[in-house]
Structure formats: C-alpha cells, structure tokens
Amino acid sequence: ETGSKPFQNAINGKEPGSWYLPLTPNNGGLEPDWTWAGDEGAAKREAVERISANSEAIVAFASRGAGSTGFPRYGAPLADPNAVSNESIQPFVDASLKIVAQKLLDADKKSNCDEAMKDLASVFRREGGGELVEQVATSLAYL
Length: 143
Hints:
This protein is an all-alpha fold. Helices cover about 50% and strands about 0% of the residues. α2 (about 40-55) packs antiparallel against α4.
C-alpha cells in the first residue's frame, strides 16, 4: 500500500533504532506515545504485579520452552496450543522469575538480586547439572 514502507521498516526492524535499546520515544512517531503509562518505575511495578497475580500460568507457559512441541506442529511456536510444558522445571523457573521480579523492584537501589541469581544457578548446576541450567535458561528466553 502506498506510504506504508516506513511502517513496514519500523515493524521489521529495518528502521534505525526501531529494535535497539534504548528505544526512541514512540518509535519516531510511528507508535502512540506511552506517557499515560507513567514512568519507568511504574511500568516495572506493574510488570511485577502482573507476574505475581498470574505466576502459575506464566511459569507453565515459560516452561514450554524446555517442553515438547505439540502435534500438529504450528509455524509460530509461541502460539502452539498443543505445546507441552516441562513440569519438572517449573519450580526452578518460578524461583528465577521471583528473583527477576525483585530485581525490577530494586532496580534503583543496591540489592542482592544478582548474587541471589548466581546462587540459584549454582543450585541448578548442583541439583540438575548443565541440562537443568540450559532448560531454565531456554524457558526464560521463551517467555
């Protein structure tokens, strides 16, 4: 469609700055301004609230990253309604997300979240080896 090329480029990451941090405000005028959502701190608090309110479903969804694909296969893995979550790693994913949530809340002050995540990764390695660490990392990336 005539005049759509700038929008296509921004969506597809071909427009400078459209996919790289720090993002340009409102994607250079192509997207609505998000000032109504508050500052960065408010956005982080809302993210933590959403994770906390729906943690069981979020953990189950994330654990699909280390689970198995559904049948029939779908072209968009994140949208696969038949994908199966890896239930054995859900407690580990849950523990990781709790530390991430705490880090979001403590972002502006010194916290022990980085150390807590390193300690948790050590527990993962000790209890489940490199495979468990990889499965948790894959699940968090899937999310």
